[in-house]
Structure formats: structure tokens, C-alpha cells
What does this fold into?
Amino acid sequence: MQKITITKPDDWHVHLRDDFILEGVVKDSLKNFSRILVMPNLVNPIKNTQDAINYKTRIINAIKKLKIHNYFEPLMSIYLTDNTSEKDIELAFRSGVIFGVKLYPFRSTTNSFDGVTDLFGKCSLVLYKMEELGIPLLIHGEVFNKTVDIFDRELIFIENIAIPLKEKFPKLKIVLEHISTKDAVEYVKSAKDPIAATITPQHLFYNRNIIFNHGLNPHFYCLPILKREKHRLALIEAATINNTKFFIGTDSAPHSKENKENESGCAGCYSACYAVEMYATIFDRVGCIDKLEQFISFNGPNFYGLPYNSTKINLIKQSHIIPKKLNRNIEIVPLGAGELLDWKLVE
Ligand code: DOR
Ligand code: ZN
It folds into this structure.
């Protein structure tokens, strides 16, 4: 039986939500990952340092209930709005609690109604401050505009926002989150440091056909939406070339089965529980299992200037099926429900 032992990975982009689902969701993440970078788009977004400290306390309380020892404290982010001030950024920096600031363009995704309406008009002073202090800007890189095709939102964001942003703030640390297109891969490769991108399991596994395969499949609806096969292939190439600019970020985003299978179904795929097995499966299927550790365990810390984790995980090559449903105090259909994975995490 084939077995690999690799450095325990981190998840550089995860949604944990809050309240009664927090415990179950955190447990899934900590089974797979050491450090987790927590997104701030709660129903009431985490907009400042105090919100983040309170949320972090709730997450740590959930971890304590699970009796997990030797865990890393969650890495917190705050949500950029039109009203975020330079003082907010200074406080965030001085607190030592805030790892990054998340940019959601207005209406771009789940809970983005507090998002930024005019980045250069409203947030320039804040961006200068972040550049000066070295705080990373984590970007949901899509424009929302009724005239822009949903499949082009990332490309238009790159052309209209990312390129001028890089020109105006060349030293700002930027992470384009959950990239979904060949255009984003090429842009990140060509742009001057410091810039990087995270890649999710769903964007490596699937192209957009899966959303419409024998009827509409809401469980594959996420934002950025899945794209054509040529984009998926470009993302696989980016993830497997040992380039520090590309690293793991699951974008695991739990929604109840009911809210997904709904006349207004929510965007988001829940992958925290099987994410490492999914990445291992896709890397192996394209003949690159030897590149897995670099992508999930080393490239992220390299970009963020952090040490590698000292603990290890073991994976064996063994088929198993992703359950059709999970109970995390709400019923959740995980990403790839009912499908085969080729690798399994073992003790
Ligand atoms: O599909 C997504 N779900 N994309 C996001 O950007 C947000 C996330 C969520 O919070 O549900
Ligand atoms: Zn996300």
C-alpha cells in the first residue's frame, strides 16, 4: 500500500461561521490543518479588532470543548468597508491579532453588502497604511455589476482593480483568493512580488459542467463560479509547479442543505473535512503527488514568512466515498458528496 508522510498543512482561507455550527466545523478544520486563516464575512461582519478578538475567543472556546491540545490559535482577518479608517488599521496592527484585511467588493458574494463600493475612492488612505505596516490584503477578486457576465467577473476585476492596485501600491502584500481562471494564474505569475493566490479543491477538481450535469447541482455553486476546463487545467498547472505564489486555501464555506437547495441557493462548498484528501487525490490523478507537500504545507508559510509546521500527517492510497450528508448541528452536503477519493488521512 502506498503511504506518504508530509508536514501538516495550513488552510489559508476558511469560513467557520459562528454559534451552534462553530464546534463541528472547527473540528473538521483542525483534523486537517495546523494554522487556519478565518474569514470575517459573518452575518454581522468582523469589521474591527475588537470584533475579531471576540470572534477569536468564541472559536477558541469551541476548540477547548473539543479537547484538542497543542492547536494553533486561529489567524484572524477583518472586513474592509468604505468606512474603515487608518486608525482601525493601526489598531489592528498593534493588537498583534489581525493577520490580514479582507476585501469583498460590494455584492460580490455571501454577506458582502458591507463590502467596498469604490476601492480607490474610499480606501486609498487605508491601503497606504496597510502597505506601510505590511498587513496583507486578502482579495475576493470579482466585480459585481449586472452587465458583467458571471464567468468574466474575475477577469474584469484583474483588469480594472488588481492591475491598477498593484501599480498604485507596489509594496502592498496581496493575496488573490480562490482564483478560478487561467487569466488569474497568468496575472499572478507575471506580477511583481509581493503577490500570491490561493486555490480551492473545487476549482482543481471540477469545471463548470458539473453545475449543470443531469439537472442543476446547487452543491457545486460557489463564488467565483467554476469555469471552463482550460481554466481548471491552468490552475492544476499553477498548483503543481512548486511556485511559492500559489498555495492552498480551501474556501470551505458551510451552508445548510436547505439553504443550498433553495430558490435562492447560497454560494459555497463545504470541504474542510476532506480537503487534504481531495488535494492529494487530484495531485495524484495528474501524476504530481510528489508536489503536494510544497503546495499545501510550504508555499503558504514561504509567502507569509512563517515557519513550517513541525507536526506531520500520514496519507494512504485507499479509495473511500465522501458521505452524502454530514451533521454539524445543521445538515450539510459536503463538496463531492458520493464521489470517490483515492487518498485517506490516517493516524
Ligand atoms: O462560494 C463562496 N462562499 N464564496 C465566497 O466568497 C464566500 C463563501 C461563503 O461565505 O459562503
Ligand atoms: Zn471565502
Remarks:
- DSSP finds twelve helices and 13 strands in the chain.
